[in-house]
Design goal:
single chain, 119 residues, mainly beta, seven-stranded mixed sheet, four-stranded antiparallel sheet, 61% strand, elongated
Length: 119
């Protein structure tokens, strides 16, 4: 069973920065894509940024220009550098991985890390 462990969340003032990290372990196949989603209270979970095994990345509009996703394939980690944070970025941030095993794909989620941005 793939395990994803997030770290780096916390409380920051508006305009500040945080760096989230996600470490994947017990990988039995290959990671096709890995990235970050977030869920604010009363809202649906939404994509923040994702990076594929080909190193191409995709960002939500609100993340473009402020957030940067990066991946260390050898270490099976993915990070999200978040700058110029806004109160509306407050949410639980989840790491998600799409793992390919044989001809099948499976998705795994981390437990989430809270990010709170104060105004």
């Amino acid at each position: 069973q793939v395990q994803l462990v997030e770290s780096g969340g916390g409380l920051v003032q508006a305009g500040g920065s945080l760096r989230l990290s996600c470490a994947a372990s017990r990988i039995t196949g290959s990671i096709n894509a890995i990235g970050w989603y977030r869920q604010a209270p009363g809202k649906q979970r939404e994509l923040v940024a994702v990076i594929s095994d080909g190193e191409s990345s995709n960002y939500a509009e609100f993340a473009k220009g402020r957030f940067t996703i990066s991946r260390d394939i050898g270490e099976n980690t993915v990070s999200l550098q978040m700058n110029s944070l806004k109160p509306e970025d407050t949410a639980v941030y989840y790491c998600k991985a799409i793992v390919k095993i044989s001809t099948f794909q499976f998705q795994y989620w981390g437990q989430g890390t809270q990010v709170t941005v104060s105004s």
